[in-house]
Amino acid sequence: MHGRRSKTTAFDCVTFDCYGTLIDWREGIGDAFVQAAREDGVTLAAGRVLDAYAAVEPAVQAERYRTYRDVLTIAAQRTAERVGWRIDADRASFLPASLPRWRPFADVNPGLAALHRGGYRLGILSNVDDDLLRETLSHFRVPFDLIVTAEQVRAYKPAHAHFLAARQRIGPARWLHAAQSYFHDVVPARELEIPVAWVNRLGERPAGGARPDAVVRDVAGLVEWMG
């Protein structure tokens, strides 16, 4: 343990989804598309790109296991076609190349630091490759005790593999998962009876019957809820 936890806490370990929860993937993807298209003389609206990408990426992940670098490349190519920018696979590699530059939300590092000081073990369960996540970890100011990636489990959330691997590694410790995606994280966590906090950054409504243990606006809200 890293310090003294609040005596009111019900948890020992908190795991997070990374992209969308800790890292502002919408800004990262939107900026990457707009800048790369501009280099080709094409003007794109980030909002339209993000709407298209949100539909494309889960479909690519569901086809079969690929590295996340390949998922990003294929999803970029298909998204670009949807929004009227025709590119080949080599050009679509701009998206995975941009990932190390995607930045944390402003609330993330202060919130993670507060949890770390409180003695919580911290972890990440992410639909990503190990090498890409290593690049992202440089943006955070605290260490993570547990890392589970798609590359390690050869599957993408909302499949259960991340959660089952984390459960095995965490053991009997009291565990809370926190994530922005209702589809990728809240639903499978509840299916496995894992306590989950929905970091509902976009103010969305539940898209199904799964109910999280808490709904918070951001990581600062999570810290407040945990006391």
Percent range for β-strand residues: 5-15%
How are helices and strands ordered from N to C? Answer: EHHHHHHEHEHHEHEEH
**Count of distinct structural domains:** 2
Tell me the CATH architecture of the largest domain.
3-Layer(aba) Sandwich
Strand order of the largest sheet: 3-2-1-4-5-6
The N- to C-terminal Cα distance equals 18 Å
Rg measurement, Å? 18 Å
Query: Which term fits the overall shape?
Result: globular
What is the mean predicted local confidence, pLDDT?
95
Q: What does the model show?
A:
With 227 residues, the protein is of the alpha/beta class. The protein folds into 2 domains: 13-24 and 103-226, Rossmann fold; 25-101, DNA polymerase, domain 1, CATH 1.10.150.750. It contains 11 helices and 6 strands. Strands 3-2-1-4-5-6 form a 6-stranded parallel beta sheet, sandwiched between helices. It is globular and about 55 Å long. The chain starts with 12 loop residues before the first strand and ends with a helix. Mean pLDDT is 95; it is low at 1-8.
